[in-house]
């Protein structure tokens, strides 16, 4: 029951993310992004305490390291998003070969970096927590991400349908 409550909170958080992206103020976006990350960390902490059955002592040792881990993962992902945002309005089949190659190489680099960070930190977690709890942590993180992606896709569907309708209506208007 508590787990479902936490998942509901995560979903509610995920649904508020698009409102952050709609503002034009760069410093506002940065502050809101950091606030959203802090909110997500609090939800993760609540989830992990419950699902991993962490003792106070385990939590005191584990949590600061997890915050560093989360920060490093987010930095790599944000860098990748920044790179991809340059091409967001372009059909990737229409970009030049060099740009496409650079995107592929950057993606490979990002995946490698994420993997290295995870391996390094999972080994650190194993020094603090039993292997069963680290395995459960990995599973919980994957479930959270899967759940957030699903909600994000569901939220994007209505937006995509609106955009398609607008494009159709523009096509119906005779050109002068």
What is Rg? 20 Å
* Ends apart, CA distance between termini: 61 Å
Helix content: over 70%
Alpha plus pi helix count: 5
**How would the global form be characterised?**
globular
Q: Tell me about the biggest sheet?
A: none
The overall pLDDT average reads 81
Number of strands: 0
Low-confidence stretches: none
Protein architecture, described:
With 176 residues, the chain is an all-alpha fold. The chain has two domains: 1-51; 55-131. It is 85% helix and 0% strand. The radius of gyration is 20 Å and the shape is globular.
Offer a quick outline of the entry:
Helices cover 85% and strands 0% of the residues. It is globular.
Keyword list:
176 residues; mainly alpha; 5 helices
Task: Please write out the topology.
Elements lengths: L1 H20 L4 H26 L4 H30 L11 H32 L2 H42 L4
